[in-house]
Amino acid sequence: MKKKAYQSMDAKYDISRRDFIKIGGALGTGIILGTPAIWAQEQTKEEKPPRIKTNIDDAMKAKKTKYSLPGLYPGKVVEVHHKDAMKDNKPNAKIINKIFAKGIEQLTGKNLKDSYELFFTKDDIIGIKVNPVGAGLISTRLEVVDAVINWLKENGVKPENIIIWDRFDYMLKDAGFTAERYPGIGIEGLQTMDEAAAEGKKDDDSGWLDAEGKHVSLGNFDKDVYYWADVDGPKDKPYLNQHVVNNKYSYFGKLLTKKLTKMINIPVFKNTGNGVSMATKNLGYGAVCNTGRLHKTLFFDVCTEVMAFPVIRDALVLNITDGLRAQYDGGPMPDAKYTYLYNRLFFATDPFALDMICHNIIVEKRKSMKVKVNENPMYTEYLRYAERLELGIANPEKIKHIKV
């Protein structure tokens, strides 16, 4: 079925069967963002599932660097607003560039050149993690990524040392992150998926299984660097097609473990049930495979524990939450009737402080729109967990929230 173009923020966002599978709802597999039914249950239940054993202690043993989370500016969040950043549903690149510059300068207290030198060296390979889900509606705006890339290039970074990435290759393409749009810039998905097989349109699994019966993307993941949790993934083929493996291991992509030296995280401003799907979830569930098994069993704690591993903890130097368009309900799947022009970008080195500020904003928005809100602390406990692990600041009284 051909996808319809997004027409209006008031129109129901059209999701074809193909799109629905890509978002993670097909055949009960659940997966990329979490089964919608599971997130719906999380809106009403009053406590998390029993604690599952993981290898978080292994992550915490590694010595930190000066760049390690919560980064150079713990507990500092800069919010920059311009009413015309998006007008008539069209991003204004000139204004977005100004917002970006203002946000970086307010965060660091330095100009763009000196700010760059705080975070990067000439030898860094810099990965830009985007969120391409909900292309054309609520995905990371190309113009925000353009502003980041221009900043890097103006300070001497070669295009080939910049890589835009996400977990799924086809999502990047759908959202406009292509070689044609970004000549010379790397575009990498950690894995692929045979969509026709996932849709049940063919019995041939050769599009995602190799001659040895292993996922064709298995080689993209590092079996020596992994998040282990004492729960297996489902054994059905649709799950394996989407998740590469279905054991107790979620392997980090080799892009992160072998290539990138620094990362910039650009999530979007949206909800996930009564929680948020922003800075920490963009990486917590986007940097590893075999995540479907984790949604129900570990809830949001994955967003803290995956971020604790040095491969992310020591490389993630900047987070920019794209709130040009925001979504206050219906998430993590895109739904136009719950989106609105917000015309803001949020800046932080500390992704946990950033998510706490944005969580509180979205709760107030949901209330103002008469959405039933569950304010149980379980929805932000993973942020306080991060503070206990000294990965970030979650106590609102300790967060410096600067509005520009």
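(the above was protein one; protein two follows)
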Amino acid sequence: MRNKWKYIWSLMFCLLIGLGIYSNVSIGEANEKSSGTITIADAGWDSMRVHNEIAKFMIENGYNYNVDFINGSSSATFTGLRTGEIDIYMELWLNNLEEPYLKAKKAGEVIELATNFTTNQQGFFVPTFVIEGDPEHGIEPMAPDLKTVQDLKKYPELFKDPTDPSKGRIVGGHSGSVAQEIMKQKVKTYGLDEYYNYFSPGSSGATSASIEKAFKNHEPWVGYYWSPTWILSKYDMTLLEEPAYDEEIWNKNYGTAFPENQIYVVVHKDFPEKAPDVTKLLRNYETSNELTGEALLYMQEQDATTKEAAKWWLEEHQELWTKWVPEDVAERIKSAL
């Protein structure tokens, strides 16, 4: 009997050792599957979030990194990029962060890898039916001679501020955005503050909702908007004319049209060493205004999340993104789709 128990205890001991070894190997294998964690800035607007999700899907499934998003305003997230708290900025709008960006670039704190896309649609927008009417719905033109920002001085009553009927309302950049301060200064520079109150929505989503409401009810609306967005992919809006861009005037008081905006993919200075394989992907990352707008419109019409829209975009545009990565990486990403 004693020998029998010795045999049983020996067998159990061997099993425990075996399980321990198996457990250690499993943990080791699991660790090998993750190459570390990469952080991406989320400054709050939809196009950035779609590109973030596209990059996340490709990085996690193609290169086995974990990806986390860090939320904050444009200024706060860019500061995080400079200090290294954030690794990647998928949509850095040059004109909106020009001074701190050029300073950080000169100091060697950040590295520009690619131009994600370029846009020149940014400024004061109105629904086109305000100018041209909408015969299909029996809407007459409300401001047929509205062409320029200065023409807005004729129509404060048309764009009446619901909280202050003595003035019109111009919807500005949303709270926390760089455009908020630029547009606020533009209103003063053009002398529109005598006729209009400047209103900053709490988020880009609140701005979109106010435009949707205006189109649904055929109500006048004027304010800041930009492309690429699902709004401009879905609705017919007109960008009001401003004086042609002049760098000296722009730097003085923003009293010209927005310059053409380069939207860069930028990383912290240490990132190429941290993830050289992902760096190569990001150097090839190039889309367009139209391609980005497609994803945003899909998200809106299908009531999809940015994650779902990113996956749809990757499925739709395999001929594009497969050129950004090696063949084996592309196959892993396609399998994950």
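Reviewer note on protein two: The first strand starts at residue 37 and ends at 42.
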